[in-house]
Amino acid sequence: MFPIQLKRLPGNEDLPLPRRMSEWAAGFDLHAAVPEPLELTPGERALIPTGFAMAMPRELEAQVRPRSGLALKHGITCLNTPGTIDADYRGEVKVLLINLGKEPFTIERGERIAQLVFQRVPEVSLSEVSELPDTVRGIGGFGHTGK
Ligand SMILES: O=c1ccn([C@H]2C[C@H](O)[C@@H](COP(=O)(O)OP(=O)(O)OP(=O)(O)O)O2)c(=O)[nH]1
Ligand SMILES: [Mg+2]
């Protein structure tokens, strides 16, 4: 069990902190900390505050992922999905939403706009080499196996 510290930012006492909406949900829903309703016109994007900052163990990252319901019903998604929250980031968690739908969409204060999913980040070491180990695939990619 990894400890995650959440710090509510001033002026957001009315908002829930990220929470699971079912017992085994992978995602903790994020609430919009917009001071007033914010309209996103079709094609428009906006960086939405969530009203909290966090600290987690260095072996973790948190991914900011879209909510499928908002995407299906309104075309609202995260532009940079999945967003990456680094373990050493202490700023406010924010959500970069874009309206890919055909209608304007209004984000209300407190609305659940995205979800946080925690992941373990493997420790790696990068090194430069002159030759890579051979594989059957080789350099084939981008659909080289057919449609
Ligand atoms: O959806 C997101 C993505 C990022 N961040 C914050 C946390 C993350 O640790 C930081 C930097 O994100 P990223 O590394 O994706 O952006 P960058 O363009 O590389 O910025 P930087 O140079 O600050 O790393 O911004 C968010 O709050 N929400
Ligand atoms: Mg970065």
UniProtKB/TrEMBL annotation:
Catalytic activity field: dUTP + H2O = dUMP + diphosphate + H(+)
Record GO terms (molecular function): dUTP diphosphatase activity; magnesium ion binding
Enzyme Commission identifier(s): 3.6.1.23
UniProt keywords, alphabetically: Hydrolase, Magnesium, Metal-binding, Nucleotide metabolism
A Pfam family it matches: dUTPase
Gene3D superfamilies cross-referenced by the UniProt entry: 2.70.40.10
dUTPase-like domain sequence ranges: 15-146
Gene Ontology biological process terms from the UniProt entry: dUMP biosynthetic process; dUTP catabolic process
Metal-binding as UniProt keyword: yes
Enzyme category, top tier: hydrolase
Superkingdom field: Bacteria
Pathway: Pyrimidine metabolism; dUMP biosynthesis; dUMP from dCTP (dUTP route): step 2/2
UniProt: substrate binding residues: 67-69, 80, 84-86
SUPFAM superfamilies on file: dUTPase-like (SSF51283)
Cofactor: Mg(2+)
Record-stated family: Belongs to the dUTPase family.
Function according to Swiss-Prot or TrEMBL: This enzyme is involved in nucleotide metabolism: it produces dUMP, the immediate precursor of thymidine nucleotides and it decreases the intracellular concentration of dUTP so that uracil cannot be incorporated into DNA.
PANTHER family: DEOXYURIDINE 5'-TRIPHOSPHATE NUCLEOTIDOHYDROLASE
UniProt cross-references to HAMAP family, sorted A to Z: dUTPase_bact
Name this polypeptide is given: Deoxyuridine 5'-triphosphate nucleotidohydrolase
The species this protein was found in: Cohnella pontilimi
Higher taxonomy: Bacteria, Bacillati, Bacillota, Bacilli, Bacillales
Gene: dut
